[in-house]
């Protein structure tokens, strides 16, 4: 039996305009002109470019993001004496740092003022975009899965930049804005609070992250392999499956004992993706007040074996300026950097 494959539309796809709900929005107009760039089909990319619908909330989101970006650039230029050439040259090392005076208002623009302004505008931008997402879902009468996935994503950033600094009582606990400064924060939070990889919520986040990539790889590979039989028309396949979906389900049932249909595979992917950031948010929030050292927490709860010569009594009676656990091979504050510690000896400063 011949398989009929639905051809891609020869003209851009658009909904009728204007709609009743779009007319209620003072900025409810589409921007740009829908075009089709057919060469993108060679790279398995949708050939349609445009249009963009922003509306009131989308416009506010883009505007506040641009203002925040401009403030960040001004803060970076201030560090290089307003020399734009140096700004480009040292772009990776430019850092807009948070204030270091607790939760008080910054003393000046240079000492946390730029960071606070950028933070405020970008937080507003993210919030406005979330409202835009919700408004669009209500416009099309869709289920709010996309909105809740967006909330899960911003829960991680909100935990890092807002919730945890508030709990710890200092904006300095938040990362600065810049390329290398974000990497420095990710490293420092692990070094300062034990080994972050022993954080059980971080472990769950990594599990869901790796699971998401595996599921997306399995799903994408399966759809591409059976697209000649129409499996890539997933919206119609959910309602009425054809040979492409049947073969895909049989393959995975024979491979691992069970299968996912065109609907449930997206349930799996959605849950794994949202739990990646949600578990990460909980891991960030609990760092510093649930425990001040995740390695000690893991030893106490039996999830990791203690290593090195440090005993429990030595950990409990440590000097205040030393970390809870002296990890092999890592320098310790107060010790000469040229004398790293090993597993058999611990030198006192």
Description:
The protein folds into 2 domains: 25-192, Up-down Bundle (Photosynthetic Reaction Center, subunit M, domain 1); 200-304, Photosynthetic Reaction Center, subunit M, domain 1 (Up-down Bundle). It is built from 12 helices and 4 strands, in the order H-E-E-E-E-H-H-H-H-H-H-H-H-H-H-H. It has helices at residues 20-24, 55-79, 84-89, 109-140, 145-168, 179-192, 200-226, 234-239, 243-256, 264-286, 294-300, 312-316; strands at residues 30-31, 35-36, 48-49, 52-53. The strands form 2 sheets. It has a two-stranded antiparallel ribbon with strand order 1-4. It starts with 19 loop residues before the first helix and ends in a 33-residue tail after the last helix. 23% of the residues are buried. Pfam families: Photo_RC (PF00124). GO terms for molecular function: chlorophyll binding; metal ion binding.
């Amino acid at each position: 039996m011949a398989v009929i494959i639905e051809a891609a539309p020869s003209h851009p796809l658009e909904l009728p305009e204007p709609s009743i709900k779009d007319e209620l929005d003072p900025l409810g107009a589409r921007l740009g002109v829908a075009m089709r760039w057919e060469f993108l089909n060679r790279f398995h990319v949708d050939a349609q470019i445009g249009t963009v619908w922003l509306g009131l909330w989308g416009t506010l989101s883009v505007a506040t993001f641009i203002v925040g970006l401009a403030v960040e650039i001004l803060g970076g230029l201030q560090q290089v004496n307003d020399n734009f050439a140096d700004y480009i040259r040292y772009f990776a090392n430019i850092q807009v740092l948070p204030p270091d005076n607790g939760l008080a208002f910054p003393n000046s623009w240079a000492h946390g003022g730029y960071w606070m302004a950028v933070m405020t505008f970008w937080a507003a931008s993210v919030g406005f975009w979330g409202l835009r997402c919700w408004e669009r879902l209500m416009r099309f009468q869709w289920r709010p899965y996309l909105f809740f996935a967006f909330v899960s994503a911003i829960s991680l950033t909100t935990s890092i930049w807002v919730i945890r600094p508030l709990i710890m009582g200092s904006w300095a606990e938040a990362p600065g804005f810049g390329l290398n400064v974000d990497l420095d924060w990710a490293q420092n939070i692990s070094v300062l609070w034990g080994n972050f990889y022993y954080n059980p919520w971080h472990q769950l986040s990594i599990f869901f992250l790796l699971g998401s990539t595996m599921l997306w790889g399995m799903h994408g590979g399966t759809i591409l392999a059976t697209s000649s039989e129409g499996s890539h028309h997933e919206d119609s396949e959910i309602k009425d499956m054809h040979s492409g979906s049947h073969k895909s389900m049989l393959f995975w049932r024979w491979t691992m004992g069970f299968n996912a249909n065109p609907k449930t595979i997206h349930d799996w992917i959605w849950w794994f993706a949202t739990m990646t950031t949600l578990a990460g948010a909980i891991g960030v929030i609990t760092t510093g007040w649930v425990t001040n050292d995740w390695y000690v927490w893991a030893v106490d709860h039996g999830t990791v074996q203690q290593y090195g010569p440090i005993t429990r009594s030595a950990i409990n009676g440590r000097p205040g300026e030393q970390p809870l656990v002296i990890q092999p091979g890592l320098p310790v504050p107060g010790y000469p950097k040229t004398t790293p510690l090993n597993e058999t000896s611990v030198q006192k400063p």
